[in-house]
């Protein structure tokens, strides 16, 4: 019986000791949470490294985007400047052509104005000849020169202004006197005292006329 009681005491002690050992290990594990800390620290390091990499990527990506934008702006500025200069040159060319044509017309008109008195003298001289005198070689030669002069003036677009039988136009005619006429109505030109001429679309000399009152 004594032996059995000893064996029971030993088994009880073993169970108590095992329970105390387990409790101590649990206490140690609870009091020492170092096993979980490395995992937390590793995760923080990973997040910081990922943030740094994303910042670097965004930074370099921004630089790559900004450089083409600046180059494109510079190209657009240069293209706009070239277009402006081309437009200014085109306007200058057109203005120069207009000025050149205006100067040519002014010079041509001045030459025509100097030639017209010569034409007037031819017409007066031929108008004062009789029928017999016009048949003479000298008169025929003068008439040929007159016709040649008129032909050359027509080639230069110099044309006489119609007057007799036309309605008075202050832009083409210069009324120097008023007359009575049974043939024409009032405001109609009855007589031409000096012939007028136009050069292209401009009047070189107005016609001197007599208008029916």
* Overall body shape: elongated
Strand order of the largest sheet: 1-4-5
Strand content: 5-15%
Portion in helices: 55-70%
Cα distance spanning the termini? 177 Å
Low-confidence runs of at least 5 consecutive residues: 23-28, 30-43
> Mean pLDDT, rounded to whole units?
78
Question: Radius of gyration over alpha carbons?
Answer: 59 Å
* Helix/sheet category: alpha+beta
The number of E-state strands comes to: 6
> SSE order in H/E notation?
HHHHEEEEEE
Sheet with most strands: 3 strands, antiparallel
Question: How many H/I helices?
Answer: 4
Can I get a quick summary?
This protein has 213 residues and is an alpha+beta fold. The chain has 4 helices and 6 strands, in the order ααααββββββ. Among the domains are: 81-156, no CATH class; 159-213, Head domain of nucleotide exchange factor GrpE (Nucleotide Exchange Factor Grpe, Chain A, domain 2, Roll).
Give the helix/strand layout.
Elements: H1 2-31, H2 37-127, H3 131-134, H4 137-155, E1 158-160, E2 173-179, E3 189-194, E4 197-199, E5 202-205, E6 207-212
How does this structure look, described?
- The chain is α+β, with helices and mostly antiparallel strands.
- Among the domains are: 81-156, no CATH class; 159-213, Roll (Nucleotide Exchange Factor Grpe, Chain A, domain 2).
- It is built from four helices and six strands; from the N terminus they run ααααββββββ.
- A three-stranded antiparallel beta sheet has the order 1-4-5. A three-stranded mixed beta sheet has the order 2-6-3, with no helix packed on it.
- The longest helix has 91 residues, at 37-127.
- It starts with a helix and ends with a strand.
